[in-house]
Amino acid sequence: MPDFYGQISVFLERLARIAPELGLATLETLYMVGLATFFSLLAGSALAVLLILTGPGGLRPMPRLYRVLDAAVNLGRSFPFIILLIAILPLTRLIAGTTIGSTASIVPLTIAAVPFVGRLMEGCLLEVDAGVIEAARSFGAGNARIIFRVLFPEALPPIILNAAVTAITLLGYSAMAGAVGGGGLGDLAIRYGYNRFQMDVMAYAVVILVVLVQIMQSACNFLYKKLR
Amino acid sequence: MIQVNGLCKKFGAHFVLRDITLRVEKGEIFGIVGHSGAGKSTLLRCLNGLETYSGGSVRVMGREVGSLGQKEMLNLRRRMGMIFQTFNLMERRNVFENVAFPLEVWRVPKERARERVEDLLKLVGLEGKSSVRPGNLSGGQKQRVGIARALALRPDILLCDEPTSALDPHTTASILDLLQDINERFSLTIVLVTHQMEVVKRMCGRTLLLDGGLPQGTGETSSLFLAPPEHLRRLIQEEYALLSGGVNIRLVFGSPVPDASPGAAAGPLRANSGKAPGSSSGIISAMARDLDLDFSIVGGRLERYGNDILGFLIINVEAEEAGSVLEYLRVRNVSRQIVERPAPGGGADA
Ligand SMILES: Nc1ncnc2c1ncn2[C@@H]1O[C@H](COP(=O)(O)OP(=O)(O)O)[C@@H](O)[C@H]1O
Ligand SMILES: [Mg+2]
Fold first, then answer.
1. Domain parsing of chain A, residue ranges
2. Element (H, E) at B143
3. CA B306 to centroid of ligand 1, rounded, Å
4. What mean pLDDT is predicted for residues A7-35?
5. How far apart are CA B175 and CA A163, in angstroms?
């Protein structure tokens, strides 16, 4: 039995040694994913508004602009993240001043998520009953009112669910950004687990990622039920 | 109020409306009736500019709808409420917030909006339902919310697109009563689109019949339905298994065009007179006696047209007696009409 207690104490000792770094990496991940989710929801919503305004049957159909936007969204979504990450390094330096660290990672994460969010939000807004839009038009609501007072409020519950999908996808991307020095849990897992064969550190990082995903999804499900 | 002249509407190369002319006077309830796909909704949506048109003119309250700028268009819509078959309420707003929405759009101050909404909910009989979501209301209640919302901005015209088509007969009656009440109380002009013949008969003084985008007839609702021109009979579902021999004659009781006859049977019969059936059958039995005649009753109906109960009866007599029957009816000022059987191959075989 002393052997068992010995193992436990070794385990706890190592955990205690790595804990501050794990905590820091978790905070970095939350910072990257949080801000990237926020910015991509903003920009993605704007994109979605453009798509539904100009799309077929939209409030202001502009077929040619819609086709361009539509193609751009598809192109953006089909770009592998790891390639995008490297391709836009100059832009990242321009915006963030550096290409290393968690602040710099926010740039590629946001850019990768915008077309994705734009498409998801377009879907949510299109789900709003055309009759409700017609009713709003019938008593003189202009397009801006319809978008901000009818479409977004009516589509809020599915938008919340898609925010969860976005944050969780970005969590996965952030681990990839970590591979090229982006900071956060992914970075930590690769530095210790892959480069130094400290599998326990990698396991902790993965466990924390799993827990984060669970928390985000549950929080959004809760909000969804509450708002519906 | 509304003057439509030669209106045409195309979707692509396909005409959905063709050469529509109609006129709606202030304070009347005007009906537009036709089968599904006839173009009724499209016509209604042309009136408040929700749909553009390809030709002709639509003038509402003195202004050509097609030539309004964006801002003028919104101002016109402000003066025209609209209700729908599917109610079209916002699911995530409660009853109060739904009714308040038009007021919010037009930036009516909160306090005044609140009073207005409360008055409206009282008017449509939904006090106490303020904080209920539409999902928890019955169809009739939802339509009441729709009506309250449409009236929020005190419009001059109310457009109704199949307002009762999703409701059961009992609820339909109560919604129609409400619309009639509103029409009388505020002398609100109503344009009512429906495929339900009984709804126009009950509600509308004048009606336009629409089929395949073409106007089929327009005029006083009662004349249109009680003595329909030949080509309209099929359209308004007035088909009887007419007898093949003899002559079928339609007698109209309580003629919609009141004639000078003092005869009790011929004047419009009041809903509460209670003797409508008796007095109409009076002339029939008198005729049978006076002319010593045998006839068969093919069919007939009494219906409410607005506040009047009007009806018709189709009888079948021998060909040689038809002349004297028609003469007998003419002398007594009873509206009558010979009903031809549909041409063979027309579909209806008895
Ligand atoms: N946006 C549209 N594009 C093409 N065709 C349409 C459109 N809206 C309606 N139609 C066609 O116009 C005709 C009339 O439609 P509608 O006015 O809705 O008829 P109703 O209300 O009498 O049932 C139908 O044949 C329908 O298919
Ligand atoms: Mg319709």
1. 19-227
2. helix B139-151
3. 30
4. 90
5. 42
Ligand 1 atom having least distance to the Cα of B38: 22
* Identity of the residue numbered B326: L
Same domain, B142 and B117: yes
* Reported pTM: 0.83
Residue B53: CB partners within 8 Å, gap ≥ 6? B7, B8, B9, B17, B46, B66
Whether residue B345 lies inside any domain: the answer is no
Counting residues of chain A whose pLDDT is more than 90, the rounded percentage is 64
CA angle B242, B243, B248 (to 5 degrees): 70
Task: Tell me which residues have their CB closer than 6 angstroms to ligand 1.
Answer: B 11, 16, 34, 36-42
Q: Which CATH class is domain A19-227?
A: mainly alpha
Q: Are residues B73 and B123 in the same domain?
A: yes
Q: Is residue B126 domain-shared with residue B218, that is, in the same domain?
A: yes
Q: Which pLDDT value is given to residue A70?
A: 95
The CATH number of the domain holding residue B273 is: 3.30.70.260
**Number of compact structural domains in chain B:** 2
**Cβ distance B291 to B300 under 8 Å?**
no
What's the domain range around B203?
Answer: 2-226
> How does residue B256 score in pLDDT terms, banded at 50, 70 and 90?
very low
DSSP letter assigned to residue A60: S
CA dist B284 → A142, A184, B254 (Å): 62, 97, 14
For residue A2, the model assigns a pLDDT of: 62
Of B199, B226, B253, the residue at which a domain comes to its end is B226
Residues listed for chain B: 350
| Count of beta carbons in the 10 Å neighbourhood of residue A57 | 9
| A&B contacts, CB < 8 Å | 69
Pick from B70, B93, B105: CB nearest A139: B105
pLDDT over 60 (residue A111): yes
What span, in angstroms and rounded, lies between the C-alpha atoms of B218 and B31?
A: 9
